[in-house]
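JOB MANIFEST
job_type = single_chain_structure
chain_count = 1
residues = 357
[input]
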Amino acid sequence: MLSNSAAMWLGKDLAWGITVGGVVKALLILIIGYILAKFIRRYLINLSRTTKYVWIVNEDTAGTLHNMIVIISLVYALDAVGILSYEVAGTSISSMISAFLVFYFSYLLAKRSKDYMIMRAPQKKLPEVQLKAKLFYYTVVTLAFFIALNIAGFSGRLTTLLAAAGITGIILGFSAQTVVSNFISGIFMYFDRPLKIGDPVEVAGYSGVVHDIRILSTRIRTWDGTLVRIPNEKLFNSEIVNLTKYPVRRVDVPVGIAYGEDIQKAIDVIKGVLDDMPYVLAEPEPVVFVEGLGDNSVNIAVRAWAPSEKWFDVRWRIVQRIKEALDREGIEIPFPQRVNWFAEELKVRVEKGGGEN
């Protein structure tokens, strides 16, 4: 315990209500804050040379945390000498300033880390990294907001206000449930990963290429060049057909030949066409077989595998080359035909030159 003389000395008033004890406390806060800021900055810089998480542990992060600690130490030092100890709305000015600084520097940290993560991402993984960066950014900013409220001393009052405004909260909850549902669905979509930017897909009645994936919605560029925005809730609850999820995809082409044609010859011609196409894979091996006997033709099924990104190109080329090859070999692809049978023999009257037969 301090002696009476020491206590009197620390409580000595210097000027404008500033005491010796307040000055000593302010100096200790500044010294401790300065030492802590330097230590964290040096530690993070050294760690950035060995860690793989350079997107968050780097010189910018170290500098941001260093500046935040130094400035907050200065605020609390001024509060210790009584300059910022005044209260506004039931909380001290120093607490409000500290809360703002924590939120501001957290925002800077989140934004720089997000930009750094995207900047360092390879082009192949850029869409996935962009989504990760957005989730990280919004998470840090949200946490910083609630931490800042707690530092400012508003968290308890905020709870009271929300409890008092329960009915309003319920109404707002119903009105905002779509936004919340889209947000949560966006998070689930990130972990489920049924699609990524650049994938050709069929979803929610639309077909096209995924243009952008955001927290609340996903944008698809349809094949005719229009942009469709689909809420993530609807997307999450819909059946999603990803046309290039796997590296290879099967091409199915039905071919009909006339009943009078040689089936084996037609199959051999079609196999020859497939063998000459470079993007038709040898493994799995293409399959050509008689699928059924139709009303107007013998139906031959053609099934070949191709790289997913070349599927559309391969399919239309297969159809075109099979038609050309069958024409060269004189194999008929019949038109739809109908044979009509009548219960009674028809009597036909032919008029020629004004006479009757």
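[summary]
Confidence is low (pLDDT under 50) at residues 160-165, 167-172.
The two ends are 141 Å apart (CA to CA).
exit_status = 0
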